[in-house]
Amino acid sequence: MVTPDRWGEMKLCWDAGDRRWALHISHHLPADGLTDAHVGDDLCARTRVVTVAIDEGIINPMTLAARTPDGAYEVSVINGRTARAIKRERNKKHAQLQSKLSRCREGSGRHRRLMAAKGKLASRTKRRLRDFNHQVTAKADRFVRQVTAQHEEAAPDGMRVVVRLVVGDVRGIERDTAKKRRASRSTRQQLSQWERGTQERQLAYKTGLKVRHVSEVNSSQTCPYCLTRRKTRGRRYACVNENCALVLHRDAVGGVNIHTLAVNDGTFVPVAPGAMIRVKYLRAAPRWSPDQRERHGRHQKARKRAGRDDRPEARSSARNRATRDGVSADPGVAVVPPRRDTKSRQQGVATPPGADRAYARTG
Fold first, then answer.
1. Residue 126: other Cβ atoms inside 10 A
2. Whether 155 contacts 148, CB under 8 Å
3. What is the DSSP string of 323-337?
4. Which distant-in-sequence residues (6+ apart) come within 8 Å of 179 by Cβ?
5. Largest CB tally within 10 Å, which of 10, 123, 188, 220?
6. Which of 133, 83, 79 is nearest to 252 (CA)?
7. What is the pLDDT of residue 56?
8. CA-CA distance, 19 to 314, in Å (whole number)?
9. What's the CA gap between 119 and 258, in Å, rounded?
């Protein structure tokens, strides 16, 4: 609850997509931001700087990498395929509506209905993407705070812990892609609809930190251990150096290298051979995993084998249905009522012999 003493500016805004009014009230939040590592501060020996590097992408919006107090690298890859599906659905439906609009007269009833459908589609997509961006930045904020808490626990008494948030610089990557033919048509569309700036602003607001940019050239092509460079395709990076033979997620390699560039003033420095890289994959929006989907499918098939009755008490279990019908059955055996031919019964056709017989199935 936000009490009125914390209210700020109020605005009554009109949403053209939803065609409704909304009252926006800004309010003050308690100061829960992290301590930023400012350039002008005196970073003496009693201050520990925690650097969190972020590799941004379209498939995986944010890949965060940071060093833990034990010297290992903690990497969190946040998946963003949900946003790609949302945008793809929006683009396809928008193209269909635009094609229909080109064949009708402006101001007609059909034209008004199609325009209303376009507005509803845009509003729905906006809400879904806004929720997705908050899901991504909330998980990124949680990662930053967890790493900071680990360093605060491991730091000796009297040591001050400050945080520095560094992002790979991809600003302007979508410019002049059509003229210079640096990307295909579908890739140019994805780059133009990339919501990288919105996610950066939301993360800076939630953490209270300033976002700094560092060049990420060759960060996803360089092995963090031996600095061997290789151009990769797909999400899997495999080092070609026989003595190294590192196999890691491509975005995790980029996050670790961006962290190295941020710590060493833009210079690639090999990671210590004994340093571990722990990678964790997160979905931005909660979805079923493949195992959950498979178990759900088996559950639905078991319910289907138990019987064809659509009543709620019949869907619970086969044993309950047998008890309800008043038929005594052994444990694990259900008496399933026959499936009558409704069409034949309506037409007066005689029921085939044996159709009224009950079938026993094992549970």
1. 14
2. no
3. HHTT----TTEEEEP
4. none
5. 220
6. 79
7. 96
8. 45
9. 40
